[in-house]
Amino acid sequence: MQTDTYYKNTTIKQHDITASICLDFFNERLRVDDYRGNIQSMVKAIHDLIQQQNFSKVIIKARAEHLPELLSLGFLPEAWFSRYFNGSNCVAMCKYYSNERKRSDFWVEQDRIMDQIHSTPPAKQETVLPESYSVRLAVPEDCTRLAGLYSKVFEVYPTPMNDSDYIEKTMENGTVYYVIEHQGEVVSAASADINQTYHNAELTDCATLLEHRKFGLMKILIDQLEQELKSRHIYCAYSIARSLSFGMNAVFSQRGYLYQGRLIKNCLIFDKYEDMNLWVKDLSSL
């Protein structure tokens, strides 16, 4: 497993700033996950790194109160994470280094999909797991089967989910997976990547084999993950979904998540950079 070919987590440390960053080689972007100190110094250090790596996008997970200063430094808000920092809000402040990366190719079409989703009435009844299907918390022994599932569903994916060693390492680092089995085969899975410092979790790695997608299995997995997170006193749950996917966005909308922005050309999925919608839910109200 060579995660360094995908990304590298590192730290910027200077006399007036410290920042935890991710150099995302696969998606040609730099992400600032945490910081403190002089914001102008941080932005200069980021700019220098961008030039070295030839990246085309920067994302700063910023405190809401820093939005005006980052605006003055050329960053634009793309998404709002309610209660991300132990109950305080976070805003994704972005800057681009190429016109091609900044330009959304399907913005109006994606707006139409969102209009459809917002006009869809709430589900009248909960999705029930069909007979011969079962759901449970995944364990390390499932990693090989999980890698097989992700290999079948995603030809290209932002993280090496086709690598069982990588999946096992994420489990060791605290990521929670739930799986649905049918006749001994893992046919659907999703995970919650937990931030133990700020007590939030990203629901991600959602995958269902094509022939099993008519049963609404992902709604069941998300419900299980939400219950698991709440039992661990994690109340901010969020997810990013492909903006062109009616199905996944509809799932989060039906589950009570709020649409809170769109990240332009955020991830390389399938054959192109995709815009991603952000969905956020306060689990404390469940």
UniProtKB/TrEMBL annotation:
Domain of life where this protein originates: Bacteria
Molecular function per GO: N-acetyltransferase activity
UniProt cross-references to PROSITE patterns, sorted A to Z: GNAT
SUPFAM superfamilies: Acyl-CoA N-acyltransferases (Nat)
Family matches, as Gene3D superfamilies: 3.40.630.30
Keywords (A to Z) from UniProt: Transferase
InterPro entries, A to Z: Acyl_CoA_acyltransferase (IPR016181), GNAT_AblB (IPR022525), GNAT_dom (IPR000182)
N-acetyltransferase domain boundaries: 133-279
Pfam families: Acetyltransf_1
NCBIfam families referenced in this protein's UniProt entry, alphabetically: GNAT_ablB (TIGR03827)
Name recorded for this polypeptide: Beta-lysine acetyltransferase
